[in-house]
Amino acid sequence: MRLLRSTDLALRVLMRLAVAGESSPTTREVAAVVDVPYTHAAKVVAELQHMGLVDARRGRGGGLSLTDRGRTASVGAVVRAFEGDGDVVDCEGATPCPLNSACRLRGALRRAQEAFFAALDPLTVADIVAEPTGPLLLGISRAS
Predict the structure, then answer these.
(1) Span 87-105, pLDDT tens digits
(2) What φ, ψ does residue 40 adopt, rounded to 5°?
(3) Of the candidates 38, 61, 42, the residue with the CA atom closest to the CA atom of residue 50
(4) Rounded to an integer, what distance in angstroms lies between the CA atom of residue 53 and that of residue 121?
(5) DSSP one-letter string for the chain
(6) Is the pTM of this model over 0.70?
(7) Quick one: which of 38, 31, 43 has its CA closest to 4?
(8) What is the per-residue pLDDT across 44-67, written as a single tens digit (0 to 9) for each?
(9) Cβ atoms 15, 133 nearer than 8 A
């Protein structure tokens, strides 16, 4: 399974904010640190804010911060929110698969997808920035 760019970016933004401490980086600063275009970062930050995981303040002294809910958010839940819970393959698309009614692959792929999410469910954002990751993230942000 390959994550969408927005999912990958959402996780990287959450990780960066989890190690920000008292600082409140702007969306532009976070975009630079994680090396993505500002417009992509802004869309993802808006979605994370809508989910209640990120607080965004405008103006002087503004910036981004991780909410308590964001710090304890399940990585699996974040991935599900960005990826959606649809099937890995589209068996009923514009050209439905002729094997659809007797296919065993669709069920196996669904079970594999659920196992993927289940492996991520117990992990929180705080867990994935624990040492040695957190200090490394801070080193990257200082280099920008």
Answers:
(1) 777 777 778 788 777 788 8
(2) -65, -45
(3) 42
(4) 16
(5) ----HHHHHHHHHHHHHHT-TT----HHHHHHHTT--HHHHHHHHHHHHHTTSEEEE-STT-EEEE-HHHHT-BHHHHHHHHH-SS-SS-TTSSS--TTGGG-SHHHHHHHHHHHHHHHHTT-BHHHHTTTTHHHHHHHHHHH-
(6) yes
(7) 43
(8) 999 999 999 999 988 777 899 999
(9) yes
Cβ 127 vs Cβ 76: under 8 Å? no
What letter represents residue 134's amino acid? G
Cα(16)–Cα(139) distance, integer angstroms: 11
Amino acid at 37: P
Is 64 in contact with 105 (CB distance < 8 Å)?
no
What number of other Cβ atoms are within 10 A of residue 83's Cβ?
Answer: 18
